[in-house]
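Morning. Coffee machine broken again, so started the prediction first thing and wrote up yesterday's gels while waiting. Chain of 663 residues, entered below exactly as on the submission form.
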Amino acid sequence: MKNLPLLFTLISMLNFSGSLSAEELKLQLRYQQPTSEKSNRFHRLIRQECWDPAETAIIVCDVWDYHHCLNAVRRLNEFAPRLNQVLIKARSQGVSIIHAPSDCMPAYVNHPARKRARQTPAAKTIPKDIKSWCSRIPAEEAAVYPIDQSDGGEDDNPIEHAAWAAKLKAMGRNPGLPWKKQNDLIQIDSAKDFISDKGDEVWSILEAKGIKNVILTGVHVNMCVLGRPFGLRQLVRNGKNVVLMRDMTDTMYNPARWPFVSHYTGNDLIISHIEKYICPTITSDQVLGGTPFHFSRDRRKHLVMVIAEDEYLTNQTLPEFADGMLGHHFQVSYAWGDDQERNLIRGLEVLNEADVALISVRRRVLPPQDINLIRKFEAAGKPMIGIRTASHAFSLRKKKPPQGYVDWTEFDHDVWGGNYHNHYGNKLSSTITVADGVRHPILRGIDSGASFAQKGSLYMTMPLLPGALPLMLGKIEGKPAEPVVWTYIRDNGGRSFYSSIGHKDDFTNPIFRRAFLQGMLWAAEIEIDDHAVPAQNGYWNLIDLPMAPVYTDTVWSRCVVRLPASWDTELTLKIEENTTVWWDGKEIIKNKIPAEWIEPGEYHLLVVRNTGGLSQAPTLTAGKKVLELKGRWQVRAGGEKDAWENMPLPAKFGASPDILFEP
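Came back before lunch.
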């Protein structure tokens, strides 16, 4: 009996933690914060946290058995096996697992995990609106939503999509809403897990088990994972410590819609929006080990833009260039110069996972560990791209670095094969021409006789190192021509592309834009073809009402309205004359919206067509209640026959949160 105290101790440990081997979850939370107050640039940062598994839950959101988008099914089936491994490992560590396949509860009426959820006592305090969809939290009010998902986000080939719809119909499924249960690739532990798609039930489970930390995963992050009653927004605004597992999710986004980027870039944009305004993210390898999951069809190269120069405003021009030109070819990340500390570039650790680096830095010196990140990247023979002041990125003019900082004075020679030693006066105009007799993929689509005026001063760069190939030259009358765009193969075999052209006004020049894009593609060893410069179709613009007229032809304007239960009555719309107006695709007659058209708590689409656009903000009234629709709307020019009076799916899924109005 002398071992009895030890037995009691073991029993006590089991009761307290649920497992003798439970260890803290050591997580790296990635988040973004503005480089300074009101800045539109964000540092991407990492913080370490340790979570108690007993106080942690994973919610698996809408990982359905079927979907109306075939490509969405393919992507889910690719990452679902790894997600299942995450759940197995987390469950073994004592993490609670909540399966939340919305609209599928009839399939689980008799399932022990569903009964366990229903039998959980209701929490003493149920947050307001926890049963409802949530399209926006206050932190998002100033944000611009990064994609247009109003077409439903399907990216299927039309022929494949039609065949898939026919297959679903033959299976007895509704091609538009084919899901009936959770995907069988995700195992449900009958003895431990929970099944629920109801916000109040999920909240009660979290409260009953003392859950403080929640990991969200599943599909689709821009719709269900964000907006469901148990989704990111609701849990964040109600005080849970929430993260998104970013590599175990997908986005409903169609590359044919704004911002006209690849599907995977659209996914990145939504994840970035979440990190900026909603919650941090983690990856599956933090539970399983190894490396994060990567979709096999995502063949983009990871490009990191290192930007720390003030003179030529590349902190504006390069992101704009990336948004418009790079979204099909690259996954783009940023490492920004610190707005308070000149010799600090935050987030350089991202170079460890990058394929390509673009340097736009001017006369900064860095802590040794940071300059070593760049040296390590270069030494690995990876592609490097330089613009303008990258020739003197890490050297001070005739000064030594402050204590604790180091320079790289030979950076121009080592990386670009360059020889920058001065520049001509800013008032001296230079003309840029294609180098005689040079044929190179970077010059594809550029006439050999093309010329244009350079903005900004001409750099003195002669002579370049052996192995550097000038593609464009700059000439000032009476002065020797200087190389301004060239390639260089470094001693380690790495490709370098450099352009001393890079004044903010140069980015408006189509010849420079094409050459710079194709130089980036060449450096990254991406094929340069006639599709290198992406085509962009019409799209919805954001405007603020009231506004001064900027259109002369037919204009479509739209916003989203969410009304509480007290507004469950006929509405009157006050709006300019000579407009045609639709409410969820139904034309409004005599500015009256019938009560039966209004579903309290739901999201309704209001669309207006007129000539010239709206110059005044409309208002909705219900008795003495007034909602002024003053603020952000989406607008686009079009004709009478354009069918933009509705969306192919409910507004809560398709509309962006930046055009939402509610009392």
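Residues 70-92 form the longest helix (23 residues). Going to sketch it on the whiteboard this afternoon.
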